[in-house]
Write a structure and sequence with these properties.
Its cofactor is [2Fe-2S] cluster. By secondary structure, the chain is α/β, with parallel strands linked by helices. Strand 1 and strand 2 form a beta hairpin. The protein has 7 helices and 15 strands. Bound molecules: flavin-adenine dinucleotide and FE2/S2 (inorganic) cluster.
């Protein structure tokens, strides 16, 4: 299979998450792509508009789930898709989160905004293999309650034994939950810093402060991984668009260990 040629996938499910964000379930039209590993991304082509990188948010056996926030021409075209519509898909590409982690590990997943999406396959993995891990802590932040992704699943995940905590930057009248930034949840969450794997994805500033909080709790730098973004074109290490220092993020990322990412987090614009 040519990694530069999109394969046709059909929208078989569409769920609005927020006013500008939708989750799409995609099934192969004919040919199917290889299975993904949690943390990887695909290149999704809106016919006649363009192609963008999107983290895989779920799916199995050749199906893919993606959560898309409409911010520009391509993502708005994807946001407008309806059941039965076709898209082109390439991939999956890039590095993964490294799950399953060793048995007995505590999993700490920290997501901000649309950065929650790439963590969701890890949530599915932890649910399917719950006894493998001691604590599974999921810390989610959003700007407002209306911006929270996957909110309909929170109760089910808590009932299944996940420690899922949510915070918003700005509350509305109906919000009885926590208000504040997501790194604040790290300070009080119940996990063993010496025996955890911490996976972080969100806006740059949120990742910086989350990592600072994880390090302050005593999490070793080598136990922290983050998902990083750069503009991408080819997705397979040919064009150089996604270069960040010595890395091509489509090939050496998007998931990068903190010891490698630390000096790059200082690079302006990230
Ligand atoms: C590895 C990876 C995984 C991603 N996963 C997801 C995902 O699961 N869901 C999702 O909704 N988006 C995801 N993105 C971001 C998505 O690719 C961009 O929003 C998209 O490329 C924007 O294209 P556009 O044509 O719609 O908008 P454009 O017209 O290209 O851009 C519109 C606005 O978005 C900004 N923008 C463009 N690209 C990015 C980017 N990569 N990151 C942040 N801001 C950007 C631009 O500066 C501009 O302000 C991911 C990006 C990468 C690199
Ligand atoms: S997107 Fe082309 S090299 Fe990474």
């Amino acid at each position: 299979m040519d990694e530069m040629t999109p394969v046709a996938y059909r929208v078989v499910g569409r769920r609005a998450e927020t006013t500008d964000t939708v989750t799409l379930d995609l099934a192969p039209h004919r040919e199917r792509l290889p299975d993904y590993r949690p943390g990887q991304f695909t290149m999704m082509y809106a016919f006649g508009v363009g192609e963008v990188p999107l983290s895989v948010a779920g799916g199995s056996d050749g199906t893919f789930r993606h959560t898309v926030r409409g911010v520009g021409a391509v993502t708005r075209a994807l946001h407008a898709l309806r059941d039965g519509d076709l898209v082109g898909l390439r991939g999956p590409f890039g590095t993964d989160w490294g799950v399953p982690a060793p048995a007995g590990t505590d999993l700490v997943l920290v997501g901000g905004g649309i950065g929650t999406a790439p963590l969701w396959p890890v949530v599915a993995h932890a649910l399917a293999d719950r006894s493998r891990y001691r604590h599974v802590t999921v810390l989610i932040g959003a700007r407002t309650p209306a911006d929270l992704l996957y909110a309909g699943s929170y109760r089910r995940l808590r009932r299944a034994g996940l420690d899922l905590q949510v915070t918003v930057d700005h509350a509305d009248a109906g919000w009885a939950g926590r208000v504040g930034v997501v790194p604040g949840l790290v300070d009080t969450a119940d996990f063993d810093p010496r025996h955890c794997l911490a996976l972080v994805c969100g806006p740059e500033v949120m990742m910086r402060f989350t990592i600072r909080a994880l390090l302050a709790r005593g999490v070793p730098p080598g136990s922290i991984r983050l998902s990083m973004e750069r503009t991408m074109r080819c997705g397979v290490g040919h064009c150089g668009h996604c270069q960040l220092g010595p890395l091509l993020l489509c090939r050496d990322g998007p998931v990068v260990g903190y010891p490698v990412a630390a000096p790059l987090l200082e690079v302006a614009q990230l």
